Amino acid sequence: MATQTRRVALVTGGTTGIGAATCQSLVAAGYTVAASFCGNEDRAKDFTSRTGIPAWRWSVSDHDACRAGIDTVEAALGPIEILVNNAGITRDSSLAKMTPDAWRAVIDTNLSGCFNMAHAVFAGMRARKWGRIVNVSSINGETGQFGQTNYAASKAGILGFTRALALEGARDGVTVNAVAPGYTDTDMVKAVPADVLGGIVARIPVGRLARPEEIARCIAFLVAEESGFITGATLDVNGGQRMG
Ligand code: CAA
Fold this sequence. Notes:
The protein is of the alpha/beta class and 244 residues long. 48% of the residues lie in helices and 16% in strands.
């Protein structure tokens, strides 16, 4: 287990919500952890001062920025052996009202972001014969959701991406898995109109939103040394809202 303490993990969208909980869970498990963020500089500074976890700013939707950002993180901390593709956005509206910009923004961040980040770390992981990639999907990528054609497509796309990349990493000790959270107590979910969210929570068998730490726990499980035989899997964490 001695090597585990030295492994470097990078969590995108790591300064808030599920990402922040994941960073803290991985620190507690003994990893060296870095976060990336895109939007809110003040929140990132606050996160770093509270947790001691460094955070770098770039957009995962920008391929070149991902390469440059990863170079910076690796120069500071060492090779990234664990990548958690958590960064995600919503631009909810029915298809009739959805603008092409709202479509593209969600696909570029949520789905292309996984490609851009994996593209920059995958060769190194294979060369070192060890790596862990966890992509954060969503129950809504599995079931669909009114007002989320863009988001559901991106999150369903992540599942195909995960399975295909798992095949490419399997012989070299690189596992690629997805976590599909249900509705979780984050700013993203709090932005859903209260009446709509109330109806959704009423249909969750466990009867509440997930806590971000409950999703982080699953990510920490998948990146562990002992999880090397789990690859191409989707771990559903949704309070019983969708089974099977
Ligand atoms: N099913 C069927 N019909 C629905 C509906 C639903 N769920 N919701 C609304 N409608 C109907 C409306 O009643 C309306 O009907 P009328 O025209 O007859 O009045 C019609 O569809 C159009 O509704 P709107 O004009 O209100 O549609 P809109 O484009 O403004 O979008 C919405 C509404 C913003 C999508 C709103 O329904 C909403 O916020 N829904 C919640 C979406 C959601 O769950 N997002 C999850 C965000 S969190 C997340 O994504 C994290 C994760 O991974 C789980």
